[in-house]
Write the structure tokens for this entry.
Amino acid sequence: MSLSDQTHYERYSRHLVLPGFGPEGQQRLLQSRVAVVGAGGLGSPVLHYLAAAGVGRLTIIDFDTVQLSNLQRQVLFDESNIGQNKAKAAAHKISAINPVEVIAISEKLESANALPFLQGHDLVIDCTDNFAARYLINDACTLLNLPWVYGSVFQYEGQVAVFNSNGSTTYRDLFPEPPKPGVVQNCETAGVLGVLTGIIGSLMASEAIKVLARLEKPLSNTLLIFDSRTNRIDLFPVPDRQARKQVTKLIDYDEYCGTKPPRDMKEVTVQELKHLMDTGADFQLIDVREP
């Protein structure tokens, strides 16, 4: 793409007159390639704003389908999209916003495909909702030497950071080890304020544009935490633990985070459970009793 096209000049005119941005910044956006992992609550505003801003190529990676419960916060979709793959539905929607190049990958990002899916991009944006995916994205970006934007939401709070940008800290510097399984709830069980995903997603899109257009002061080496109940924003330094040196290959991240379903699962009685505990057997207990 080129700004010599009159349509492009008119479309991006507010960027072109922006101090510190100008034609140079816009041209960098037009030539940039971004992979967005997850097209849900965070992915919706990220994709919308990056497409509108003129990011030249957007790769959307999401294996999930649109459900009715998504529509409370995933604003790219409507009821007509229920049952459709999110990556493909999102690609269709953002192509109507701005005819940038869009690639939809309706597969789950895994250790086996992460490197080929992410290589060749200038930036990766994590719009997932689980620790296994974040560690995978972090390690893949570390191996590929790619910067990536992190975002997460939980109930009324959200977090944003930029990792692995020009030697900056990584996700493993912030979280050296994943939490124990079951300690941290997800949005499905704990809930999330719908509009919060729009706020955090917009901040993520802003950070992405700052990195791509080479604007000042992206959130490198810094974690932003936003509380929607008080509208308070706190910034915390991320210590450099040199965690990138630990990453030499991709692993099984579901197993690493303890989220891999057990191969053998069976129902047990109270007496059988007591016997397992008394004998020191190695097992994982899942309590499905009603409260």
